[in-house]
Design a protein that fits this description.
It is built from six helices and nine strands; from the N terminus they run E-E-E-H-E-H-E-E-H-E-H-E-H-E-H. With 244 residues, the chain is of the alpha/beta class. It has one domain: TIM Barrel. Strands 3-1-2-4-5-6-7-8-9 form a nine-stranded mixed β-sheet. Helix 1 crosses helix 2. The radius of gyration is 17 Å and the shape is globular. The protein binds S-adenosylmethionine, ligand 2KA, iron/sulfur cluster and magnesium ion. Ligand 2KA binds next to strand 1. This is 7-carboxy-7-deazaguanine synthase. GO terms for molecular function: 4 iron, 4 sulfur cluster binding; carbon-nitrogen lyase activity; magnesium ion binding; S-adenosyl-L-methionine binding. It comes from Ciceribacter lividus. It is an enzyme of class 4 (lyase).
């Protein structure tokens, strides 16, 4: 089952327990492993400290065992859901970590934009695919997204999570969701006040609330009754702070 491995993962930060603030697992206690490096550069990315190469000196190459030691220390050795995020965690070799954790009763959720499919996606418990809408400035590769869904197969629960800033983003979410009718959909309002990468940003709660209300109206107006609309709970509680 679990064997020592030598996979090296580039880690930006490991923190928690906190609660998962977004999407299908919202409210669930979790420890985050945030990897460093991303193949995208979203205009409004809220985690630039794990994306831009000017921060790469803060990223640490860690063995699977070193990461696991931090996770189990933070969780007090009690199994919980580990959230793998980034950056794009699909860049890193995380299959060994998932194996190791499963052997001790932990569960794993991964957040990715769906640009890189990995065979080890099938080992996950939850796969959150967050295709990037027009406002991000990125172009969503629907073939790569479909490959991610295929790589996961029947292993994890796979869901779609869309960040929505405006009507164009909403239309994008509608179109992409229609291509994957079997996948549950989560919509969250975009936060246009991402933090200075090393600071504690204040958040525009009024703006977020306004976009959240607009999103609810849009979903109701289109009779999109299978979509879930949720805020980023951690942003409401702690603003743009890191490590929560
Ligand atoms: C920082 S990303 C890291 C994982 C992966 N690169 C991705 O984008 O899915 C984690 C989640 O935060 C969301 N996100 C990033 N910036 C955001 C913002 N300014 N407002 C709302 N959600 C945001 C992403 O869409 C994704 O669902
Ligand atoms: N509490 C909390 N929930 C989150 N959900 C997704 C996050 C992320 O940055 O990937 C995140 C995060 O950074 N903190
Ligand atoms: S894909 Fe995710 S981590 Fe990468 S730039 Fe976009 S929001 Fe940030
Ligand atoms: Mg975040």
């Amino acid at each position: 089952m679990t064997e020592a491995s030598s996979s090296t993962v580039l880690v930006s930060e490991i923190f928690g327990p906190t609660i998962q603030g977004e999407g299908v697992l919202i409210g669930l206690p979790t420890v985050f492993v945030r990897t460093g490096g991303c193949d995208y550069r979203c205009s409004w990315c809220d985690s630039l400290h794990a994306v831009e190469s000017r921060f790469r000196h803060d990223w640490k190459p860690m063995s699977t065992e070193e990461i696991w030691s931090d996770v189990t220390r933070l969780s007090g050795g009690k199994p919980l859901t580990v959230s793998l995020s980034g950056g794009n965690p699909a860049i890193q070799p995380l299959g060994d970590l998932i194996d190791l954790g499963h052997g001790e009763g932990y569960r794993f959720a991964l957040e990715t934009q769906g640009s890189l499919a990995r065979p080890w996606f099938s080992q996950l418990d939850t796969l959150v695919l967050s295709p990037k809408p027009p406002s991000s400035g990125m172009v969503c590769d629907l073939t790569a997204l479909a490959d991610c869904v295929g790589a996961a197969g029947e292993g994890p629960q796979t869901v779609l999570k869309f960040v929505v800033f405006d009507a164009e983003d909403f239309a994008f979410a509608r179109n992409v969701a229609a291509r994957f009718p079997a996948l549950p959909v989560y919509l969250q309002p975009g936060n246009h006040t991402p933090p200075p990468a090393d600071g504690e940003g204040n958040v525009d709660i009024d703006g977020l609330t306004e976009r959240m209300r607009w999103l609810v109206d849009a979903v109701a107006g289109e009779r999109w009754f299978s979509a879930h609309v949720l805020p980023q709970l951690h942003v409401m509680l702690w603003g743009n702070r890191r490590g929560v």
